Amino acid sequence: MSKARTHHVFPASAGVPPQVGPFSHAVQWGDLLFVTGQMPTDPATGLLVPGGLVEQTRQVMANLRAVVRAAGAELSDTLMVRAYLTDFDDFDEFNAEYRTWFDDPLPSRTCVGVTGLAVGALVEVDLVVGVRGEGVL
Questions:
Q1: What's the rounded Cα separation, in Å, for the pair 56 and 83?
Q2: Which of 4, 24, 123, 124, by CA, is between 20 and 30 Å from 115?
Q3: Torsion, CA 113, CA 21, CA 107, CA 54, rounded to 10
Q4: Which residues, including other chains, have CB under 8 Å from residue 34's CB and lie 6 or more apart?
């Protein structure tokens, strides 16, 4: 039995930043929602937010929340997180901010150090989210 696949691109009015490349903001396959890695860009301007890792991490979380909600789910439905940091010396600082995103039990997670990210970002995060019931997708 094949599952329907739905691709979503959301407008900035949904609080979602414009794409910086050719991709969908999210793709649903059955009851799974795959959320494209979000950058620390301001949805209103498309520009990188000022500040360091904490400010960028907070913007990434806001962007992820906007995509997930626009797709009819909540961050609390997250199953898997993949985080990318350009400086692994920021790992503890990232974790302190990340810990505020979810209640226990935490989703599974991978955190990877990379040599660079689009738009000069210090952090990028993508998600796999479980979609409860029918949702809007």
A1: 13
A2: 24
A3: 60
A4: 26, 27, 28, 126, 127, 128, 129
- Strands (E) across the chain are located at 5-8, 26-29, 32-38, 78-85, 108-113, 123-130
- Alpha-carbon distances of 84 from 28, 79, 100, 126, rounded to whole Å: 22, 17, 18, 9
Is pTM, for the whole model, over 0.70?
Answer: yes
**Domains of the chain with CATH codes:** 5-130 (3.30.1330.40)
Residue 109, C-beta contacts closer than 8 angstroms, at least 6 positions apart: 80, 81, 82, 83
- To the nearest whole percent, how much of the chain has pLDDT over 90? 77
Q: Residue holding tokens 């920021």?
A: 90
